[in-house]
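Example 3.2
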Amino acid sequence: MKGMGINFISRRIAFVFVLVAAVASNGQSALAKPRPAALANITADQRSEAKEKHNPVERVTFFSEGGQQTVAGRILLEAQDGGVLVESADGQQHTIEGKSVLSRQKSDAPFRPLTTAELGEKLLAKLSPGFRIHRTPHYIICYNTSREYAEWTSSLYERLYKAFTSYWKRQGMEIREPEFPLVVVAFADRGSYEAAAHDDLGDAVRNVVGYYNLKTNLVSMYDLTGAESVRGPENRRGSLREITQMLSQRAAVPLVATIVHEATHQIAFNCGLQTRFADIPLWQSEGMAVYFEAPDLSSSRGWRGIGRVNYPRLQTFQRNLPNWRRNSLESLIADNTRFRDPRTAVAAYADAWALNYFLIKYRPDEYAAYLKTLAQKQPLVEDNLDTRLAEFKQHFGDLRTLERDFLNKMSRVQ
């Protein structure tokens, strides 16, 4: 197994693990990319040292498909074959194969994330002409659409951030301020968004209105007021009030839910609740994002009803109950396959929402303790199915007893 780690991981994830909502703009399922494989050649001691140590800046020069490149940042993980996981000052994480490394140069300079202004300048230099920056306490919105839409998006996301972090703090979770500004790229129209996102999503981009990229730490989307299903006859994008009115109509609900879903992932991976590239079970990661994905756009607070029933998900879950089998709960917990298969993904997301809803409502202490276990997971180390089941049972007990209670209660939710 020597030398397998980062080499194999780089091929499998192609530098991106896209976490996207199950309901995309056309109601179809948008699937997550494969998770990283195990870093078999990183010892527990090495993982612990990487986590606890504030590493100085190191420059890594390596071969890639585009030729020779150099990345400067802190080393998060190091494989025995020389492969490394590097985090640069802009918050991106780079997996570099051991065989590709040409040189490594350490420095005495401490690692320092870019400031909001520095990161904004770097983003504008990479994006096509016409993009501008809108900054808020936690977000950088890079946009080439209207200023009003950028302000609407940042307001929505700041309310989500406050609601999400306050909720988990009340549940006893250790929530930290993000080390890097949370970046959102908002394209003016679907065409330019799809062109920019194709490298990440491939042909699936046609079914996805927004997504979070674990490598770049960015949420990408397009201006939803230009979506055919919600725009008016004059195609006006208008004021903040008009944008809210347009995106409050029924046709816009799944679109707004998707971009909220993706922003929820971004917050979770930046506030300490989850670790990027760690093996977080998809039933939990996706189900929790669905739990938060429906804002109240008429409210200045936005999320007065956290934990309300998500009726589209509930209807799918209850409709599929006759197909529930003895191993359905076990496979949902241990195996991510159902989320990646277009034939089963919509049902998997509904099941994931239902399980998260049930556990948060009826087993909140155990759920919080389980989240703390997941928060300790290290990047690029894949758990096997037995480990996922064992961790779940450690917090929630006998699976059959839980399953009976779960099906009984969720079948009666109205």
